[in-house]
């Protein structure tokens, strides 16, 4: 009888241990997910150099691969001489489409477009728009986005 | 003269052997006749001349990347696989190999090896490739097992040997959906044409065209009862075409099955007189840029051959990994302005394509046969903006010098169109969408008719 009680106690203790272990793991996973959800980054592209456009897109790809696509919010803002990156026939037009498909928000500055007499018909179809590129970057930084200018 | 007679005699004998090999494709391609030799060397050569009537494209107004192709001839008006000329004479296929039973196995194990040195999609990267290399085990009643590189149990055109095909070219639907282009992700630092409809993946064709073949294990057999014959085949394969390894595409795999029933009127060989109905399905995955995408192909068809009259037809459809086309559909003109031609692929399983063909032939005397075929192929039927349809009427004639030597001539009346020129895209502005469809229509309108002539010598 005593032996049977002992076995029952050990079994209950084991279950509690396993349950607590599982809940700890769950909490850890939630905590990691919560931390990851905080990753936010904005890339500024304001140079006319296609090599720099390529670097920006490579950086974005690396960020997504390293942190996990779902754990980081990425936005790219192009303005000034960098607006050429988001033209319909830019050298990186194919990669822009791929980046947007991978969850990156790509934004063109409408002030720059107006200054260069560009309409949305001239722009990459995957592009989004902001009235002022620099203001968009300011707002994002205020919202906790990390800032990178390749 | 005596030597010539001897050579002709041997040729006729070998040709007769091939004729008598089998009565269905599974048996024909995977098995040997009772009493077959340990090895039989055989093969065939197909010199071919093709003339395309289609001309250059003009009238593309914008954008600059597309406009750069005005004055160029679209790829579909050039002779493949080189796609450099509208007219070309070439040794399209030249295959040779050996087949036989393995001695000491009581004829229970046979093999089949065939190589290709012609100029076609199989040899686009290497001058010589193996198209078939398999061993068949016939020990288990009702379940023969073929291991190695060989044909997939797909549609009728895909299964039949090209040396006895009644037409020079495959139909659009068989070539487009079943003759798989192996693609690899591609990134470029030149402008590419943005997609405004279904988000295609940019790729480059990698390796040989699959040629309806794969490396794997096929279980099959056939059963005869009176004049009826029933056959089945199930093949598990690595989804890599004639490539021997899968190091590049580890996620690829396929399961392909086919069922068929025939009522045999008489005769034997590939021209056996029968009425056959069949159904087949292929299901698998393709790895692309780190993600596995579902790929399905299926079809149903029937054929009838008796007293020189042939009637046939097949419906084929596919989902996922739909090879769209090169875009723009031209050879690269280079420069920093022109869009770089890249191979577009619609990878997601929501993408569909389908088509069918109807075929008839009449062998009105021992030497001559007349052929007529109509085929249709619609790509991206799930997207009004992206759907393109090609239709082809093929008028053909065949002259049989002997069972081993045949001349064919085909004239194809070809059309291609944007199905809905006013369709709305999924991204971009209305002007961009309209411009792209208009450019596509301008390009497709240059598709010309095609004249082909081919000699087939089986040795």
**Global outline of chain B:** globular
Strand portion of chain A: 15-25%
**% residues in beta strands of chain B:** over 45%
The count of DSSP E runs of length 2 or more, i.e. the number of strands of chain B, is: 20
* Order of SSEs of chain A: HEHEHEHEHE
Largest interface summary: A-B, 20 and 25 residues
Spatial arrangement of strands, main beta sheet of chain B: 1-2-3-4-5-8-9-10-11-12-13-16-17-18-19-20
Helix content of chain B: 10-25%
Describe this structure in words.
The complex is a heterodimer of chains A (150) and B (459). In chain A, 52% of the residues lie in helices and 17% in strands. The longest helix of chain A has 35 residues. With 150 residues, chain A is of the alpha/beta class. The N and C termini of chain A lie far apart (74 Å). About 7% of the residues of chain A have low confidence. With 459 residues, chain B is mostly beta strands. In chain B, strands 1-2-3-4-5-8-9-10-11-12-13-16-17-18-19-20 form a 16-stranded antiparallel barrel. Chain B has a four-stranded antiparallel β-sheet with strand order 6-7-15-14, with no helix packed on it. Classes of the chains: A alpha/beta (150), B mainly beta (459). The interface between A and B is medium-sized, with 20 and 25 residues.
Can you give keywords for this protein?
heterodimer; A: 150 residues; 5 helices; B: 459 residues; mainly beta; 4-stranded antiparallel β-sheet; globular; disordered N terminus
In short:
The complex is a heterodimer of chains A (150) and B (459). By secondary structure, chain A is of the alpha/beta class. Chain A is 52% helix and 17% strand.
List strands and helices in order, with pairings.
The complex is a heterodimer of chains A (150) and B (459).
Chain A: H1 2-36, E1 39-45, H2 50-67, E2 72-78, H3 93-101, E3 105-109, H4 110-115, E4 128-130, H5 133-142, E5 146-148
Parallel strand pairs in A: 1-2, 1-5, 2-3, 3-4
Chain B: H1 2-19, H2 25-30, E1 40-52, H3 64-67, E2 87-101, E3 109-116, E4 129-137, E5 144-151, H4 156-159, H5 172-178, E6 183-185, E7 201-205, E8 213-225, E9 228-237, E10 253-266, E11 273-288, E12 291-306, E13 309-319, E14 322-327, E15 342-346, E16 352-362, E17 368-379, E18 388-402, E19 405-418, H6 430-444, E20 450-458
Antiparallel strand pairs in B: 1-2, 1-20, 2-3, 3-4, 4-5, 5-8, 6-7, 7-15, 8-9, 9-10, 10-11, 11-12, 12-13, 13-16, 14-15, 16-17, 17-18, 18-19, 19-20
């Amino acid at each position: 009888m005593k032996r049977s009680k002992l076995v029952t106690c050990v079994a209950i203790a084991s279950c509690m241990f396993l349950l607590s272990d599982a809940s700890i793991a769950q909490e850890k996973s939630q905590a990691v997910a919560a931390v990851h959800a905080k990753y936010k980054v904005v890339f500024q592209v304001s140079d006319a150099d296609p090599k720099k456009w390529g670097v920006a897109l490579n950086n974005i790809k690396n960020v997504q691969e390293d942190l996990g696509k779902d754990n980081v919010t990425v936005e790219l803002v192009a303005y000034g001489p960098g607006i050429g990156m988001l033209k319909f026939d830019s050298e990186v037009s194919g990669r822009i489409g791929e980046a947007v498909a991978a969850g990156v928000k790509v934004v063109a500055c409408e002030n720059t477009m107006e200054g260069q007499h560009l309409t949305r018909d001239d722009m990459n179809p995957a592009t989004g728009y902001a009235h002022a590129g620099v203001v968009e970057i300011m707002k994002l930084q205020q919202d906790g986005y990390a800032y990178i200018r390749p | 003269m005596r030597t010539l007679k001897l050579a002709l005699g041997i040729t006729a004998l070998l040709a007769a052997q091939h004729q008598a090999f089998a009565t269905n494709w599974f048996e024909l391609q995977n098995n040997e006749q009772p009493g077959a030799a340990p090895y039989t060397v055989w093969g065939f050569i197909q010199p071919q001349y093709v003339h395309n009537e289609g001309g250059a494209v003009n009238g593309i107004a914008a954008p600059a990347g597309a406009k750069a192709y005005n004055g160029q001839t679209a790829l579909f008006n050039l002779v493949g696989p080189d796609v450099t000329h509208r007219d070309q004479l070439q040794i399209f296929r030249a295959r040779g190999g050996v087949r036989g039973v393995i001695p000491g196995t009581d004829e229970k194990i046979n093999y089949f090896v065939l190589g290709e040195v012609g100029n076609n999609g199989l040899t686009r990267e290497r001058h010589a490739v193996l198209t078939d290399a398999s061993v068949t085990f016939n020990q288990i009643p009702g379940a023969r097992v073929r291991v190695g590189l060989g044909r997939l149990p797909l549609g009728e055109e895909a299964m039949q040997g090209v040396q006895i095909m009644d037409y020079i070219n495959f139909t659009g639907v068989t070539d487009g959906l079943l003759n798989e282009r192996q693609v690899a992700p591609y990134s470029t630092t030149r402008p590419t044409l943005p997609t405004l409809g279904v988000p295609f993946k940019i790729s480059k064709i990698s390796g040989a065209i699959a040629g309806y073949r794969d490396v794997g294990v096929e279980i099959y057999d056939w059963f005869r009862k009176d004049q009826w014959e029933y056959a089945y085949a199930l093949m598990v394969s690595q989804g890599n075409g004639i490539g021997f390894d899968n190091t590049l595409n580890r996620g690829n795999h396929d399961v392909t099955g086919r069922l068929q029933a025939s009522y045999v009127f008489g005769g034997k060989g590939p021209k056996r007189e029968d009425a056959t109905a069949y159904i087949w399905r292929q299901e698998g995955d393709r790895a692309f840029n780190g993600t596995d995408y579902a790929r399905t192909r299926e079809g149903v068809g029937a054929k009838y051959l008796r007293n020189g009259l042939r009637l046939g037809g097949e419906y084929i459809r596919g989902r996922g990994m739909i090879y769209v086309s090169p875009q723009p559909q031209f050879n690269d003109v280079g420069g920093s302005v022109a869009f770089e031609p890249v191979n577009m692929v619609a990878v997601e399983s929501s993408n569909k394509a389908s088509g069918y063909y109807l075929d008839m032939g009449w062998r009105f005397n021992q030497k001559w046969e007349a052929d007529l075929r109509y085929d249709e192929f619609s790509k991206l039927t799930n997207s009004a903006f992206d759907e393109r349809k090609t239709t082809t009427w093929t008028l053909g004639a065949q002259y049989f010098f002997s069972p081993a030597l045949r001349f064919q001539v085909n004239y194809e009346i070809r059309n291609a169109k944007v199905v809905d020129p006013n369709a709305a895209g999924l991204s971009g502005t209305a002007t961009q969408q309209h411009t792209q469809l208009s450019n596509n229509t301008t390009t497709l309108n240059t598709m010309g008719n095609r004249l082909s002539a081919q000699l087939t010598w089986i040795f």
